[in-house]
Design goal:
single chain; mainly beta; Jelly Rolls; 2 domains; four-stranded antiparallel sheet; 9 strands; Flavonoid_dioxygenase-like; RmlC-like_jellyroll; RmlC_Cupin_sf; Cupin
């Protein structure tokens, strides 16, 4: 099976089998991308984590040429691998809601406002949906890897911003 950047359409595929194969992504075909958020390690090793893309490029940068993903038509879907002690810094998606759905381990999520943070720990099959414009963060306080789904409600989300209270404030991708 070969997934291309511009998948076949239902109408243009030579066969229903060919079309069906073009819209399936397997675990074996996924790739842990430790580099896409590598720039965040400038603020500390605790920000090292891997993105595993399925649909679209996510909001972590320009991955539109990743031929292992299905092109987004309205949302992005990826997995995030968060090692023990690792964290996702406080950030805000201004254009789309973001959902985290835990598959393995535990993830502590934080919701931020006016210098306050409310934290909750999510475990297996727990989920949080954070509206656009609301700052959020996450951390793996456990001793095993945490794996969770990340869904962003936009075809090509804007790159998130990092407020002054975030460890990433002022950190650039270059």
């Amino acid at each position: 099976m070969s997934i291309t950047q511009q998948p076949l359409t239902y109408e243009t595929a030579e066969s229903l089998e060919e079309f069906t194969d073009s819209i399936i992504l397997t675990r074996a075909s996924r790739h842990e991308d430790w580099d896409t958020l590598g720039f965040q390690a400038k603020a500390g090793d605790q920000f090292k984590r891997a993105q595993i893309r399925y649909v679209g490029s996510g909001a972590t940068g320009n991955h539109e040429n990743d031929n292992r993903t299905i092109r987004s038509q309205g949302f992005t879907f990826s997995n995030m691998l968060l090692p023990p002690g690792a964290e996702g810094p406080e950030h805000t998606h201004h254009d789309a809601e973001e959902a985290f759905f835990v598959l393995e381990g535990e993830v502590e999520v934080g919701v931020h406002r006016d210098g306050q943070v409310v934290k909750r720990t999510l475990g297996y099959r727990d989920m949080i949906v954070v509206p656009a414009g609301v700052p959020r963060s996450l951390k793996n306080n456990g001793d095993v890897d945490a794996l969770f789904c990340v869904i962003i409600g936009a075809q090509k989300p804007q790159v998130p911003t990092y407020p002054e209270t975030s460890a990433m404030h002022g950190v650039t991708r270059d």
